[in-house]
Design brief:
alpha+beta, 143 residues, globular
Length: 143
């Protein structure tokens, strides 16, 4: 008779993590996460935002939430939000298909700001005085 402990890896999806986020179980699962760098790119749509306050406050090292958006102009739209859930822009439409497919399959992706460049007077909206070029790294969060 064997007294060995048998271990089977258990997949934990992002939906499960959302359910346990504010519980002690989340603290147990969090150390098991691994962030895998997939790519880096610039945020699109920053000049179209009605409120650029989130862009003004962003700094390198900040994490952005990536979420799928039902968008009539882009069936693979991925919205980027800051920690206060303010809209910061999008993953560019010509570069978002693979990320959208991963997210649609239940994978958790997030983006980290790595570079921010601000230019005066290049915005398309009169109330926005600046044009922001923000480069992010896109990570797959694996558990």
């Amino acid at each position: 008779m064997s007294h060995e402990l048998k271990h089977s890896p258990v997949a934990v999806d992002s939906g499960t993590l959302q359910l346990v986020k504010d519980t002690p179980l989340f603290d147990l699962l969090k150390p098991l996460q691994e962030e895998i760098l997939l790519d880096d790119r610039c945020i699109a749509g920053t000049t179209h935002l009605p409120d650029q306050s989130c862009l003004e406050e962003l700094k390198p090292g900040d994490w952005l939430i990536m979420e799928r958006e039902d968008n009539p102009w882009d069936e693979h739209a991925i919205l980027l939000r800051d920690s206060q859930r303010r809209k910061c822009g999008y993953i560019p439409a010509n570069e978002n298909v693979i990320f959208a497919r991963l997210m649609d399959a239940g994978k958790l992706l997030k983006a980290k700001v790595v570079e921010k460049d601000v230019r005066e007077g290049k915005s398309r909206r009169p109330q926005n005085r600046h044009w922001y070029k923000i480069r992010v790294e896109v990570y797959l969060v694996d558990y």
